[in-house]
Amino acid sequence: MTADRTVAVVTGAARGIGAATVLALAQQGWEVLAVDRGKDDPALAYPMGTEAELGEVVAEANWRVEAADRVRPFIADVRDAAALQAAVAEAEARWGGLDAAVAAAGVIAGGVPLWEVPAEQEQAVLDVNLGGVLNLARAAVPAMLRRPPPRHGRFLAVASAAATRGLPMLAAYCAAKAGVTGLVRALAAELGDTGVTANAVSPGSTDTPILAESARLYGLSGAPEFAAQQPLRRLLAPAEVAEVLAFLAGPASSGMTGAVVPVDGGLAL
Ligand SMILES: NC(=O)c1ccc[n+]([C@@H]2O[C@H](COP(=O)([O-])OP(=O)(O)OC[C@H]3O[C@@H](n4cnc5c(N)ncnc54)[C@H](O)[C@@H]3O)[C@@H](O)[C@H]2O)c1
């Protein structure tokens, strides 16, 4: 991959794994459109990333690489297909094309059996965690295919250990994440020999606000209580997941497609 062909769109970029991925890609020379909703979601019981946090991530990334605008912010809700089309169009117009799309935006709700979860929470979990990935693929894959061959397009999604484990009180979240892994496998098969690949990572318990909300839903004192369930006996840092995503975004992952890579401290063992 040449230096002028490293343009990425990352959703969920205001904090956590998405923000760490923006930083990792920027440091590897990518131009990045950092996308986030940037405000709270009335359907959900915990705060989302803010527009100010997104601005801080963008400023930090540009500062680290001593660039004025290698990373740019973009406010969009991943449930809004037109907004993601606009984000991709912005990346193409600004930087001349698209080489990677990382679907990291995600939300959690539950804490009660599925039949007791408020309908609007269940809908948000399905629409953001699965619908948002479909929307990004619909917008980003055609853009990556617009690159002339030989291509190195990378569609990446953040699934979860919840894609394969039956986690009580998180049924919609498990369903959405299992959907993401199915989507990535089918997309990989569709993309075939185009030069665009599709892969996912499945993080384990990673120290971000979504894990703090998971702890609250389970009545735990805080996210650190999840550390004991991972063979590594600690929470992962967002940067540890981002490093794998950045590898998958790059040319060295050319032999992988349809893969779901655990980055989970052994949680799935
Ligand atoms: N932290 C973990 O333990 C863990 C484990 C497995 C999977 N994951 C997955 O990792 C991904 C990143 O989560 P995180 O841990 O960084 O959580 P996080 O809550 O820190 O970050 C999620 C980001 O997504 C944004 N977002 C939420 N809804 C959005 C929407 N509709 N449109 C655009 N942006 C939206 C939020 O504003 C926030 O900035 C998610 O898909 C999550 O399900 C996290």
How would you characterize this protein structure?
This protein has about 270 residues and is of the alpha/beta class. The protein has a single domain, classed as NAD(P)-binding Rossmann-like Domain (Rossmann fold, 3-Layer(aba) Sandwich), CATH 3.40.50.720. The protein contains seven helices and seven strands, in the order βαβαβαβαβαβααβ. The chain has helices at about 15-25, 50-65, 80-95, 120-145, 170-190, 210-215, 240-250; strands spanning about 5-10, 30-35, 70-75, 100-105, 155-160, 195-205, 260-265. A seven-stranded parallel beta sheet has the order 3-2-1-4-5-6-7, with helices on both faces. Strand 1, helix 1 and strand 2 (about 30-35) form a beta-alpha-beta unit. It is globular, with a radius of gyration of 17 Å. Nicotinamide-adenine-dinucleotide binds near residues 12 and 158.
Topology at a glance:
Blueprint: E1 7-11, H1 16-27, E2 31-36, H2 51-64, E3 71-75, H3 81-95, E4 100-103, H4 119-146, E5 153-158, H5 171-191, E6 196-203, H6 209-217, H7 238-249, E7 260-263
Parallel strand pairs: 1-2, 1-4, 2-3, 4-5, 5-6, 6-7
Helix pairs in contact: 1-2, 1-7, 3-4, 4-5
This protein binds nicotinamide-adenine-dinucleotide.
Family: Belongs to the short-chain dehydrogenases/reductases (SDR) family.
InterPro entries: NAD(P)-bd_dom_sf, Sc_DH/Rdtase_CS, SDR_fam, SDR_subfam_2
Keywords: Oxidoreductase
